[in-house]
Amino acid sequence: MESIRISLSVGFAAVLLILPPAVAVAWYLERTKGPGRGVIHTLVMVPLVLPPVVVGYLLLKLFSPRGALGQALESIGTPVAFHWLGAVVAAAVVGFPLLVLQVALAMKSVDPRLELMSRTLGCSAWTTFRRVTLPLSWPGVLAGAALAFARGLGEFGATVILAGRIPGETSTIPLEIYAELDRPGGEERIGGLVVASLLLCLVSVLVSRALSRRLEAAR
Contact at 8 Å (CB) between 139 and 208? Predict the structure, then answer.
């Protein structure tokens, strides 16, 4: 179905969008004593506690075509509001905290003595991160990516506010189910979507758990 394809494309794109910044933020929070760590951690967690509709409203205000940022993005051909990219941004924002938490947990499991040894051998902080921390953390990074993907698949509130429901473009599985339930006889037509949603999320969670167990076994 079209909505399944859209959901998969949105989920994968959202994970690719947030993966580099999530790894960087997790490293900063877990492996440095830099300023503002408490503030950054609080900001990262905000999308987890805010109602998704509020998240969507704030994103719409940020990317509105009437605003400076929205107009700038439209001028270069990458509109966000009421566009497929809006669904990606909504999924990315709500999945970002889960990814950061999982990556930070993975980095916490890395023996800091290995990193210290790398630094004493003359490696820079970047080289140590690239050759020691990240390779030892990769199962946790992928586990977090799977969780963020599953969270993005289930996003409704922020998506419907920021991206709207545009058939063939932003009509993800949750939005399509909601629209069908508003039509006569719609409940009989959503069976496949419900099953697909359950299967996709179940597979994502199982993959995340398997990778997490692999990380624990490697300690």
Answer: no
Q: Which tokens go with 57?
A: 């409203």
What lies within 8 Å, CB to CB, of 195 at 6+ separation is none
CB count within 10 Å of CB 214 equals 14
Q: Where are the alpha helices (DSSP H) in 32-168?
A: 37-49, 52-63, 68-75, 84-108, 112-120, 125-128, 134-153, 157-162
The answer to whether the CB of 163 falls within 8 A of the CB of 79 is no
Please give the C-alpha separations between residue 149 and each of 39, 103, 175, in angstroms, as whole numbers: 26, 14, 17
Q: Chain-centre distance of CA 90, in angstroms?
A: 9
User: Looking at residue 169, what DSSP letter applies?
Assistant: T
CB 109 within 8 A of CB 132: no
Residues 61-110 pLDDT 10s: 998 888 778 888 888 888 888 999 999 999 999 999 999 999 998 888 88
Cβ neighbours for 131, distance < 8 A, ≥ 6 positions apart? 118, 123
Structural tokens at position 10: 């949105």
User: What one-character DSSP code corresponds to residue 110?
Assistant: S
